[in-house]
Amino acid sequence: MRPENYPSVSQPPSNEFELFYGPNHPGIEGNYALKVRVHGDEVTSARADGGYLHRGFEKLMEGRLWIQNIALVPRICVPDPVPMEVCYSLAVEELGGIEVPLRAQWIRVMQLELSRIAAHLFFFGGHAATTGMYTPMFWGITDRDLILDLFEELSGGRVYHIYNIPGGVRRDLPPGYLERVSKTLDYLESRLPDYDNLLFTNKVFVHRATGIGAMTQEQALDWGVTGPNLRATGLAFDVRRDDPYLVYDQLDFDIPVEAAGDAWARSLVRRSELKESLRILRQVVAKLPHIDGAIRAPIPNPLAWNLPAGDVYTRVESSKGELAYYVVSNGGDKPYRVHVRGPSAMHAVQVLEHLATGARIEDVAQIMFSLDACPPEVDR
Amino acid sequence: MSKLNSIPVAVPVVQQPSGGAGNLLANVFDELTAFCRSRSLFMLHYCTGCGAIELPPAMTSRFDMERLGIQPMVTPRQADILLVTGYVSTKTLKRIILTYEQMNSPKYVIGICSCTVNGGMYWQSYATAKVLADYMPVDMYIAGCMPRPEAVISGLRELMANIRAGRSDNWKDYYRHYDHYLGNQQRLFGENWQTPTDVIGEARHYDQFGPETLGEHTALLERHQTPLLPFEMRLGLGSESNK
């Protein structure tokens, strides 16, 4: 160390000090940082510090063909990549006027819900670990691997699938795939009581999470909160039901809602969503064998594919909240402008700053994990 | 494959013969140290990019890295391995270099994912550093986008074998060719880039000071670094002009 490079700064005597919370910190979710001012163990102010994962996606996408961007978009949100692919494909299909075959739409719904379950299992693990309980983390990650195995069988990739392309999906289901999905669903359903015993009715977790990081419904709407975090404040808004895409209007599912708006309510909403996703998947597995037909609409030569000029805004419900793409085409073979409306950008910046202020220092990690923000999506 | 292995990744390191060549006891002690070192690797907990998502499965029950003696560690001071999991943006690279310099030697760097090898998917991005080996010596690359947990574990096993055989000492390269690495860092961060670590002093401490440790870039460092203040001034007893 060269302490002479850091001359001491004189300041009035104070009990406050500034603490760098991240980016290299076990309680932070990914490569992200918070600068918190601490008085005793109480946080007096918090400032989000992002940009560690900035890759310039929106600029990169302008330089690649419409079809090449499919390889790029899942990288925006690593734990939950399928909604990214689907949302971008929906935008391109709407611009190009492509009708997606029914079978491809059902396969996409299956992918989306599997991805949601995987992301929620990952979330439970992280949230439990920030309250000092590591067993749920081990269980959640191991159970998530079962879903990754299904993805791998279908697309060849565990995390990034590049399976949904404009026009449909890349290949049809392998023989016997739905039985294996069904088996995994049975197993996950049998695990739910264990999760309840271990985590959701665990006194340690309930006491640690109740009343932490609470926000009201008005605040949530002001701050642009969407998804499970918004539903935890009592507003039943879900893009799947209120602005249905794909075949969600033919499926029967509920929108779980909690009233409290704190970390406990947010984790309970996700716990109920897990069950709803399992319910959706059961319907998809029952329905898919009866839908025949193509899995991909014919698209022109993708290397010389000029989409008509225009702009389009598509949105889907990802596991983090409302995800949207605003795509502008000027009639060329590449997008003119792509804007990604990621849900985490709102959750991890203004919401986290507000909720962390006034909290105790040991709860900051829990608040961040309970918001389920995804740093790569914040920075893009 | 042998052709691939023969391509030097960083500046080639000149291997110096071990000091205790004739001393049997010293040799046994060296072997024992290398064995213990390879079986208790502490891995710094810093998720720099997407590759970090495959580390929890590798660490937890299914693939279980801990059976190899590899454990996550939260502070750089006590860590042996720096895992650079994926692309590094310019802002992250500064932190990685600071972290790397804070780690105690011997230290090992593993570049996971294609992005650390050549920029990968983000080869045309304005915000990422493309080749990690330009900025710090890399001991092992695990390529793939992203590598599976099996690949990560296989790479770590290879690193363990290298440490055991005494082949993995690229950390010395940072001291021997500090001017080269600092030059690349200055090209990216500007010529007044400096870290709080006294790398040149450490190079002398570890007996790695070589002809290429100093150069034009370290001369720039001397120019921009605040000169050492007298003791009473550091205590705030002298003039305030240096503040």
SSE pattern of chain A, N- to C-terminal:
EEEHHHHHEEHHHHHHEEEHHH
The total tally of domains of chain B equals 2
- Envelope shape of chain B: globular
- Most extensive contact: A-B, 44 and 47 residues
Give average pLDDT of chain A, whole number. Answer: 87
CATH homology-level superfamily of chain A = Cytochrome-c3 Hydrogenase, chain B
Task: Figure out the total of helices of chain A.
Answer: 14
Give the overall shape of chain A: globular
Which class best fits the helix and strand makeup of chain A? Answer: alpha+beta
Write a structural description:
The complex is a heterodimer of chains A (380) and B (243). Chain A is α+β, with helices and mostly antiparallel strands and 380 residues long. Chain A has one domain: Cytochrome-c3 Hydrogenase, chain B (Orthogonal Bundle). Chain A has 14 helices and eight strands. Chain A has helices at 57-62, 69-72, 82-96, 102-130, 135-155, 177-200, 203-209, 217-223, 228-231, 239-242, 263-287, 343-356, 364-371, 375-379; strands at residues 16-21, 33-39, 42-49, 164-165, 168-169, 310-317, 322-329, 337-341. In chain A, the strands form three sheets. A three-stranded antiparallel β-sheet of chain A has the order 1-2-3. Chain A has a three-stranded antiparallel β-sheet with strand order 6-7-8. Chain A has a two-stranded antiparallel sheet with strand order 4-5. In chain A, a hairpin with a 7-residue loop joins β7 and β8 (337-341). Chain A is globular. Chain B has helices at residues 2-6, 24-39, 55-59, 90-102, 114-118, 149-165, 171-176, 178-189, 199-205, 216-224, 231-234, and strands at residues 42-44, 71-73, 81-85, 88-89, 108-112, 128-129, 140-142. By secondary structure, chain B is mainly alpha-helical. The model of chain B is unreliable at 10-14, 228-234 and 237-243 (pLDDT under 50). In chain B, β1 (42-44), α3 (55-59) and β2 (71-73) form a beta-alpha-beta unit. In chain B, the strands form three sheets. In chain B, strands 3-5-7 form a three-stranded parallel β-sheet, with helices on both faces. In chain B, α2 (24-39) runs antiparallel to α6. Chain B has two domains: 22-167, Rossmann fold, CATH 3.40.50; 170-226, no CATH class. Helices cover 41% and strands 9% of the residues of chain B. The interface between A and B is large, with 44 and 47 residues.
